[in-house]
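Session log. Operator J.P. requested a structure for one protein chain; no other inputs attached. Running the standard single-chain path with token output.
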Amino acid sequence: MADLSQLVKAYDVRGVVPDQWDEELAALFGAAFAEVTGAGAVVVGHDMRPSSPGLSRAFARGAAGRGLDVTEIGLCSTDELYFASGHLGLAGAMFTASHNPAQYNGIKMCRANAAPIGQDTGLAEIRALVERWMDTGAPEPVEAPGTITQSDVLADYAAHLRSLVDLRRIRPLKVVVDAGNGMGGHTVPTVLDGLPVDLVPMYFELDGTFPHHEANPLDPKNIVDLQDKVRATGADIGLAFDGDADRCFVVDENGDPVPPSAITALVAARELAKHPGGTVIHNLITSWSVPEVVAEHGGKAVRTRVGHSFIKQEMARTGAIFGGEHSAHYYFRDFWNADTGMLAALHVLAALGEQAAPLSELVREYDRYRGSGEINSTVADQAGRTAAVRAAYEGRPGTELDELDGLTVSTPDWWFNLRPSNTEPLLRLNVEARDAATVERVRDEVLAIVRA
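Structure written below.
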């Protein structure tokens, strides 16, 4: 009997196949999705993991059995599924475990126009219904089951992205792309086809066992191959996508990583040029550079909690044109408020190709401070350790504290945020300052308290 408390997360379904879930359970999720959403039709896609086609087809059968018409788009990136949901006006389900190891799989679900489904927006009800049916047996099919048809939206997805960023007149660029054997190997060739780009592909073969490295570019060891290839080929830029290709990481012509906050600031400036006076969302651990650049370009910056559900809620509430996170998730109003690493990558290629300077020089304007990156500490008492840090800084002259998401402590010269993990006994620390020495000093001071 599956333990859905371990399988159903805050924003998606994710677990080991077949240990934690299988095709029989996927069919129940399809049926529950139909019941809870009340949708008339759903578009379903999947990544390249060995278990994905079977799980995806089982979900489709379960949904069709409850009366939904299902459009299967087959192999796709997560942002391609969001495109299909928006373009076709259909609810959606994407089978992927993103950057997790090969034995994992999951479902990211949305309502029509890529509106996310999370714990507070339907996922808890879907879980409850699946649990009930696990006890009582699957529901009988309705008298008029839905249809299951196939469609290919890759060309339409690429055309939509290219309609938003014009790359036809940029200077020629040599671009190394590490797809990590993930879905970037499926989408990148079509999106970049015919553009003035000399594409150097790495690990474009779709292989859900990830034979070369994990498809998680957030971990520095997984971009080493990309960095080496950029230097060896004299490329202008390197791009790395995660397994489901909804996140994109950038390295410059020297092979040095470009912080996602700098990409957020760069793309924000470009979006504000298209939409003067617009609102830009950023989470509270992006760099000071982001709100500064937004203000300098006439926009309004809105700070929010970490996590795509919070970003998307604020995007909808404020009518924001763009949103960015430290984790390299980038959200666009022109993309149904959904996240798409590919569109962010096109913006970076356009910004680079529209002028003569190398990327390292171009991003200096957007990368103004030094950061620690995210540092995790395993602790038995998250609340107690956070309270100890708060006590150490509360009342210090020139220091401000807030608890929008964890604990944030700010001064004119530095800030740090300490957040508990929702799923593990961890505290996550991010520090930023005007110079590296201050980052190290503040980092060490906070960690000494956290790890005492």
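Operator note: The chain has a mean pLDDT of 96.
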